[in-house]
Amino acid sequence: MTRRAARWKSSGVAALVLLLLCLAAGPAPAQTPGASPGTSDESVLASTRNLAIETSQRFPDLCFRRAHWVFAVDISGGMQKADGDRLDLARKLLGAWMRYPLHPDDRVSVIPFDDEVLEGSSVQIGADPAAAAASILTPLQIREGRKGTALQKAWETALAKAANTPEYLSVAILLSDRVHDEAVHGGEDPTTFRKRVSGRYAAALGASQEPASSAAEGPWAADQLAFRSPSGGRIQLPYLISGSRSPGGVPELTGTGRRRIPVVTPEMPSDPLGGVRLAPLFLAAGVLLALVVTGYRLWKEPAGSLMDLDNRNAPLNFPWRPFQQVSKGVYSGQNTSEFALRPPVSHTDEEQGPPPGGGDVQLLRAILENPEDRAPWTLRLQTQDRYQVSSDRMATDGAGERLVRIDWNDHLVLAPGVEYHVRVRQSGRGVGQGRLMFKQNEKARKLYRQAFALLVALTLLALALPAVYSFFPPPPGPQSWQSLCR
User: Fold this and answer.
1) Residue 269, helix vs strand vs coil
2) How many C-beta atoms surround the C-beta of residue 23 within 10 A?
3) Widest Cα–Cα separation across the chain
4) Does one domain contain both 410 and 361?
5) Distance between CA atoms of residues 292 and 19, nearest Å
6) Residue 455 resides in a domain
7) 95: helix, coil or strand?
8) 421 domain residue, yes or no
9) Do residue 226 and residue 92 come from a single domain?
């Protein structure tokens, strides 16, 4: 490969690589904060949103104070029923909860229970919610052979654990398929479930009053989360909520982050300047396509032809190949189908006749020179070792056209459009002669110039893309979350 060919190849590769890098570095859709694989279940996101909104309405201080979230999760066999796996839904709900309403200043405790209350886990959210979620979700596994549900004891344990962290605003949430109206509301009997646990919780907090008896007035809540099953049905997961109203001395949230809730169906914002940003991309794609088409046509088009001015041979065409040397043979003989120099008809000072070994012997090698160069393309005739070659060039001066003797070393360069008289001898015997001319294919030259111009344009477009994006930045992507507190 010649130096010019190497430069041509390297510049083309560099332009394509530069274009791809600019496209890759262009404006990508904005990443959804807090999003991660596995959150595409809209029913889980909707339940996370609804439960977070209800909790914030009952505990307004959540908007600006750090919280201790205590989840009591039922892991008994009743959580896995024919209509759906409620334990799996509870795990998904907790996973989404770690990404949205929670703040890095918060603390989370999980208490699993079946027929007994198990030792749970407690973590500080910090800067890695994914690691915190993994540590608290691991214990949520159904234990075989367990019967019954220690619902009341689990709720009392959750409230007691929440009460033991006065430096946080405490919120206790129980998830179980066994939550029912009698356990929540309890009627007028002071020994019922709700009355007893709320009294213990208020006493543990040192509060001056219990939570209000009306769920609409106080921080108590009892309801069901609705999830969509794969079959199209609905799966209900009951829950309880309680917590401290506004304990004094709880530090406020630090940093700029605030509590968030998911948006179930994000809307794509309008982009009036989208066409301005897309125009250079379409233009670059069009230039690239034109470059490919031009390159294909150039590949098919011959770069030039070796002409026999005596009309004894059909033109010998040389294809355009930028990164490889194209060569063809020139033979001697009367009956060969190849491009051949005929033996001299008569000579006074030389013996004539076909070369030894027959009339189909290669005398010269024709090699196309630098077809990728912007200078005129030329053809080089390379002599074989056993032959001697002499030639004359047709030149024009004031006296008209005349032949000029050209000295051969081991090759002769045929300039395009010039007539050459070539004679080949071996041991004084004339074995071939002819009037030759190399004719450039101007169409191939034009295609080459077009390809070069397209390559330059493609490079400039690749360089201009970042500037276009800097002047016309894209709008943010669809927002999949919003602030919990207005």
Assistant:
1) coil
2) 13
3) 141
4) yes
5) 15
6) yes
7) helix
8) yes
9) yes
262 forms beta bridges with 481
Residue 83 has which token pair? 């209509």
Using an 8 Å Cβ cutoff, are 479 and 268 in contact?
no
Q: Are residues 72 and 128 in the same domain?
A: yes
Does residue 84 share a domain with residue 50?
Answer: yes
Identify the H or E element spanning 238: strand 234-243
Instruction: Place 213 in a pLDDT band, splitting at 50, 70 and 90.
Output: very low
pLDDT 10s digits, 431-473: 888 999 999 999 998 998 899 999 999 988 888 888 877 887 7
Q: How does residue 185 score in pLDDT terms, banded at 50, 70 and 90? A: very low
Task: Name the least confident of 291-305, 312-326, 367-381.
Answer: 367-381
Specify the higher pLDDT residue, 23 or 483: 483
Q: Do residues 222 and 92 both lie within one domain?
A: yes
Residues 131 and 166 grouped into a single domain: yes
User: CB–CB of 214/36 below 8 Å?
Assistant: no
One DSSP character per residue, 167-198 reads TSEEEEEEE-TT--HHHHT-TT-TTSHHHHHH
Give the structural domain span for 21: 3-28+274-289+448-481
For tokens 């609905």, what's the residue? 234
SS3 282: helix
Per-residue CA distances from 239 to 72, 93, 477 (Å): 10, 12, 34
Pair 283, 373 in one domain: no
Same domain as 339, residue 467: no
